[in-house]
Amino acid sequence: MMNRILVIEDEDTIRELISDILENEGYEVSSAPNGQEGIRLVTETNPDLILCDIMMPALSGYDVLARVRSVSQAEATPFIFLTAKASRSDQRHGMEMGADDYLSKPFTRLELLNAVNARLQQKAAVGNHYQRKIEELRKNIAQAMPHELLTPLNGLMGLADILKYEHSDIDSESLSEIADGISLSARRLHRVINNTLLYSKLRVLASDEVQAAEFRSHILQQPEFVAQCASMDVAEQKERQADLTVAMENATIGVSEPSLQKIIEELIDNACKFSVPGTPIVVSGAPEGDGYHLCVSDRGRGMQPEQIQAIGAFQQFERQLYEQQGSGLGLVIVHQLVHLYDGSWRIDSDLDGGTQVHLWLPLADDQALEALLNF
Questions:
Q1: Domains of the chain: total
Q2: What is the per-residue pLDDT across 184-219, written as a single tens digit (0 to 9) for each?
Q3: Is the same domain home to 24 and 89?
Q4: What does the alpha-carbon distance between residue 369 and residue 367 come to, in Å, rounded to a whole number?
Q5: Domain residues for 147?
């Protein structure tokens, strides 16, 4: 498929010359004599690259660039300025607005083709990178989701059939066990769906700085209480209450209550999955420097360094050997949340020696604290 290039240039001779050179190289070229026509062609032709003169009547090249970057389909399209006005300050201004390159007039045929090819190759490389990521995610979802959805669904359908066809022979004790099974399967299905939706939402937030800033604007004064409740909820579901210890200091942190709750739930769930009942699970936390250090540790089987590095969406470690429940999405969600809050995390693990997950979350900034005090 030919790459489509849009040339926006008010001088007819230059516009036609550029178009001829590019067409002779096999590119599909559209051209516009002014900025208004160029912007119209951006939405009509969806070009792979835009060449645009700076000094034009009515709309300058800077105006065109600003409008192009506001069009969702063209916000990442490579944009090269054509200009005789190419001082360092002009170039810096254009780059700050989102231009990818400059071609100073007069330029040679080779300079034009080199600039165009370089930007198209860069665009292709980025596209291939994200395509591989999408394919990896699609593959992992395809492998994990049937199991994750069908297992609780099969449980629900099986228990429903028992109630439907054998209800007259079921005693009260068996009925209670069936109800517990239905509740467990429903909770598991609910968690899989919620985690998948949350994962998608966090991916969107990560690419939208305005929404991400709003997401980071919340603070929490009692992380110890939230961690205690979230940890105990998961431990009770796994029947590991006796193994759990929570030892956290309170501080005002720059993280919302739902976010911290989710982080703790996923880390405790992970610790329960990969350690045996009767071994300790410890949640600790305290202010450290300009942040808050949170740690969840267990005495489970541990992970190899390459397994830690391979944490990705829907990846489970050695599933065929351990067959643990869960899509492997929990630690990825933790990673996304910590990243959105400009925090950091690290996993320390020894095979058969346990795992410690360390997180450093931000403390609330002075502006947020002042707003809280004046509330």
A1: 3
A2: 888 888 888 888 888 888 888 887 878 888 888 889
A3: yes
A4: 5
A5: 136-207
Same domain assignment for residues 326 and 219: yes
Residues in contact with 266: Cβ distance below 8 Å, sequence separation at least 6, in sequence order: 330, 331, 333, 334
Are both 48 and 176 inside the same structural domain?
no
The span from the CA of 111 to the CA of 150, in Å, is: 58
CATH number for the domain spanning 369: value is 3.30.565.10
Alpha carbon distance 136, 63 (integer Å): 39
Instruction: Give domain status of residue 121, yes or no.
Output: no
Task: Give CA 177 to chain center in angstroms.
Answer: 40
Of 10, 103, 101, nearest to 59 by C-alpha is 10
Dihedral sign from CA coordinates of 304, 310, 312, 317: negative
| 296-322 residue pLDDT tens | 999 988 877 766 766 654 444 444 434
The torsion of the CA quartet 74, 76, 80, 86, rounded to 10 degrees, works out to 120
Class of residue 265 by CB neighbours under 10 A (exposed 0-12, middle 13-18, buried 19+)? buried
Residue after which a domain boundary falls, among 56, 87, 107:
107
pTM of the model as a whole: 0.57
Find the CATH number of the domain harbouring 17. 3.40.50.2300
In this structure, are residues 314 and 141 in contact, taking their beta carbons and an 8 Å threshold? yes
Specify whether 201 is located in the same domain as 228. no
Q: Which tokens go with 44?
A: 């009509």
CA-angle at 324, arms to 322 and 327, nearest 5°? 130
pLDDT score, position 248: 93
Joined together, the tokens standing for residue 96 give 């700050």
Q: What is the pLDDT of residue 69?
A: 85
| Gap between the Cα atoms of 175 and 177, Å rounded | 5
Helix 12-24 with 109-166: angle, nearest 10 deg: 60
